[in-house]
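Q&A log
Question type: sequence-to-structure
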Amino acid sequence: MMADPARSLMLAYLLSGELASAGELASAASVTPATASGHLSKLLDVGLLICEVRGRHRYYKLANADVAHALEALAVVAERSTHDHLWEHPARKRLRFARCCYGHLAGELGVKLLTTLQARDGLKITSQGYELTLQGAAWMASLGLQPKQPMSGRRYAYPCLDWSERRDHLAGQLANELLEHFIQQAWIRRADGRALELTPIGVQALLPMLNAHAAQMG
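Response status: OK
Response body:
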């Protein structure tokens, strides 16, 4: 199901975690609206997508985080022999630095965020992934963020293999809260598609905090 070129482009477009209309997905896949409708119906049938109806409009998104992680994991495997060459392409360099992966920060900045928390002993390994330590909560408080309590039925924090960096970044509820906070603080802004950008304020306020402690982890 994922191997069809048009469907794979639609799924990749939805990796940002945002909702998209059928027209937007048709444009992303360079197919006609009728063809897109057929593909979307198949993706819904197999549970890769869900559809939300808002008024007279229908919007699509990935069914859950598991689908998003599966797509990125497949990309890691598919690019084993061409990884370095592909990620030097100008169109991918912005994605490599920072991008949105189903609501959380991925790319170089995403890896730095996880290594910063690890260097500060901010995360404790559990059978479900990670839990936030007192040190981690204190660091987030210094950023102006008060993390919410873990939500029932949702993984709180866990490592996710990064498509471009081939190292883990942070995924889960906590990672989503962090990215949303970075955007609200105007440290990071959304760009085209999945791409994210550091703002001038983010370069001054956020990047030094990530660089300093990521370096400790090598």
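Response note: The two ends are 39 Å apart (CA to CA).
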